[in-house]
Structure formats: C-alpha cells, structure tokens
C-alpha cells in the first residue's frame, strides 16, 4: 500500500504539470478550436460524464453549441451534434475523419488494426475493400447464397411457430436471431450446418461473440491515457490488463 501511495505521489504532480503545459499550448495555438467545458487536470472532462453519457453530452451540446471539444483523460474528442456540422465532417472532410479511433479492445480483436472493419484508411484498406466487394459482396455472389438465407429463415419461422402453438413457451429472440446469423455464416463460409457440425460448440461460440462485443465497447485507462505508460499502470492495478489478455484469447479462439 505504501508503494502504491508513493507511486501516486510521484506520478500525479508530473501529470498535472504536463496537462497544464498542454492546455497552455492548445490555448496559444493558431487554430481556432471549438468551445470546451471546464476541465480538471489529468481527468479532463470525465467528471461531466455520469451513468448516462449520451444525456450528459446532449446537455453539454445545448450549452456549448453543435461542435465542442471534450477531453477524455488526455485524449481530445470533437463532439458534433447538428446535421450541418455532421455534413462537414462526414462529407466535406470525410477523408480526414475516415479512420476509426484506436482502442485497446479493437486492437486485440483486429490483429493490430489489420482487418477491414477497424483498419486505418489507406492503400491497404482500399485493397481489402476492393477484394471484399468483388469476392464477397458482389451481386452475383450474394444471389448465389440466396437459397441458404431462405432455408434458414424458413427454419427459424417454423421454430417460432411450433413454440407458440405446441409448447406455448416464450421465445428468446436474441438467441434465435444469433442462431440464424451463425447458421447462414457457417453454411456460406464452411459449407457446414451450424447445428449439425460436430466440431462447433454452439454455446461456446455464442459466449465468445458476446464477450467480443463487450470488449469492443469497453473503455480502458490506456484508451484515455495512451502515452507515458500511465494508463497501462492503472489498468494493471485495477485488473484491466487481465481483461486485455482475455481479448487476445477471444481473438485467437474466434480465429480457430
């Protein structure tokens, strides 16, 4: 405990000085930055975000305008909340804003941002998109698997009908739609029926996909403090580092 307190006493003043220097640099910048709510050293505007962040951001936007800056830890985030500003970002300056934010969870699950979903915009991403459009999502390719989709949807409707007429038991639609999606993907990609395949554990696959979805939406201290090793140290203290390793395990199992 004494080591931890000594560590905090050493690291906190360093970050306060660094944050103050960065704030002065931004204020003296030649760029005209959007307005920003009052912030604290180190945490920035994190104290403005409570259990319902979307409502907090909406309230801040009504006060500071359709374009504002929030400092989530040491990471500046531009919040756009009007159609005119969204058009500027997504249409006029779409190339500058086309790359997704880098986060620990997405890095682990995308093998270092090498997939088409989270990869940075560039030549490599354009080539991946070209291959996906030609080999996976072309009209001819999509139509060739139409019978699979029709068969699986028919089976799902039949199951729902039997459940309502014969057993009159409640239907878990989330589980049903997951099974539908997994069945279609399994037949298209592997040529095997998801329910009859011997080497596929349905319960385990559903658990892994659910954990992967949670990992993609999970924030870590490293996401908020990406430089200097401060975020990683806090993640290690609060057990987030073990969860990051769990993301790597999920990624390897999904690949298998």
Automatic annotation (TrEMBL):
* Reported cofactor(s): heme
Alphabetized UniProt keyword annotations: Heme, Iron, Metal-binding, Monooxygenase, Oxidoreductase, Signal
Q: Which Pfam families match?
A: p450
* Xref: SUPFAM superfamilies: Cytochrome P450
What InterPro entries does UniProt report for this protein, alphabetically? Cyt_P450, Cyt_P450_E_grp-I, Cyt_P450_sf
**Molecular function terms from GO:** heme binding; iron ion binding; monooxygenase activity; oxidoreductase activity, acting on paired donors, with incorporation or reduction of molecular oxygen
PANTHER family, per database record: CYTOCHROME P450 71A9-LIKE ISOFORM X1, CYTOCHROME P450 FAMILY 71 PROTEIN
Give the similarity note. Belongs to the cytochrome P450 family.
The protein, known as? Cytochrome P450
The organism named in the record is: Microthlaspi erraticum
Q: Mind giving the lineage of the organism this protein is from? A: Eukaryota, Viridiplantae, Streptophyta, Embryophyta, Tracheophyta
């Amino acid at each position: 405990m004494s080591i931890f307190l000594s560590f905090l006493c050493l690291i906190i003043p360093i970050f306060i000085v660094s944050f103050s220097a960065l704030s002065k640099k931004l204020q003296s910048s030649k760029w005209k930055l959007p307005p920003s709510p009052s912030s604290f050293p180190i945490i920035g505007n994190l104290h403005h975000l409570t259990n319902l962040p979307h409502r907090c951001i909406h309230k801040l936007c009504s006060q500071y305008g359709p374009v504002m800056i929030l400092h989530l830890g040491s990471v500046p985030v531009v919040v756009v909340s009007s159609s005119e500003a969204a058009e500027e970002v997504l249409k006029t300056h779409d190339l500058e804003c086309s790359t997704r934010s880098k986060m620990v969870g997405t890095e682990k699950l995308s093998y270092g941002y090498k997939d088409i979903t989270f990869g940075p915009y560039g030549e490599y991403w354009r080539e991946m998109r070209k291959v996906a459009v030609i080999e996976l999502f072309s009209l001819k390719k999509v139509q060739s698997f139409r019978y699979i989709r029709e068969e699986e949807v028919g089976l799902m409707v039949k199951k729902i009908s039997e459940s309502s007429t014969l057993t009159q038991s409640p239907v878990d639609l989330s589980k049903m739609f997951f099974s539908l999606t997994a069945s279609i993907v399994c037949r298209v990609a592997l040529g095997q029926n998801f329910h009859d395949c011997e080497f596929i554990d349905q319960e385990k696959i559903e658990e892994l996909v659910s954990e992967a979805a949670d990992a993609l939406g999970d924030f870590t201290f490293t996401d908020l403090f990406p430089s200097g090793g401060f975020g990683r140290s806090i993640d290690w203290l609060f057990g987030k580092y073990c969860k990051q390793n769990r993301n790597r395990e999920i990624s390897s199992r999904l690949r298998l």
